[in-house]
Amino acid sequence: MKRIGVTGHRSLPDEVISHVVDGLRAVLDGHDGPLEALSSLAEGADQLFADIALQCGADLTVVIPSDDYEATFGGGAPLAGFHRLRGLATQEVRLDFARSTDEAYYAAGTFIADSCDRLVAVWDGLPARGHGGTGEIVAYARALGKPVTVLWRAGVVRD
Description:
Elements: E1 2-8, H1 14-29, E2 35-39, H2 45-55, E3 59-64, H3 76-88, E4 91-94, H4 102-115, E5 118-122, H5 134-144, E6 148-151
Parallel strand pairs: 1-2, 1-5, 2-3, 3-4, 5-6
C-alpha cells in the first residue's frame, strides 16, 4: 500500500486554493493500487488533503497530536470538518501528549513523515513560524530522503 502524508498551513489564501486542490488531485489520483493518506486534520491544508484523499478512494489515517487537540479548533467549520473526517477515518493514531504544544505538533508531523512514502507540503517555502511548523517538517522529511511534493502558487503571501 502506498502511503502519502501531508503537512501544510492552517491558513490558506483564497488565491492558492484552486492550485492546491488541482495539485492534491494530481498526486492522489495518480496511483495504482491501494492508497493510505495520513493527516492530523488541522484546519486548512490537512482537511483539504483528507477530503480529496477520501474522494480518490484512499484509506484515511488520522494522527491526533494530543488529548486536548479537539479544543484547539475553537468551533465552527474547522471543528465540524475535523469531526466529519475523523468519523470517516479507517484508523486513528493518538500520540501521548496531554496538551497541544509545539512539541506535540512536531511529533505528529515527524510521525507522518516517518510513516509515509511521499510527503505533500502545502507550503509557501518560508521557514516555520514555530517548532513543528510546515517548513520544519519539510526539512525533516527531506533529511530522511523522502520525496516531498510542494504545492503553492508563486507570488502568493500568507498572512
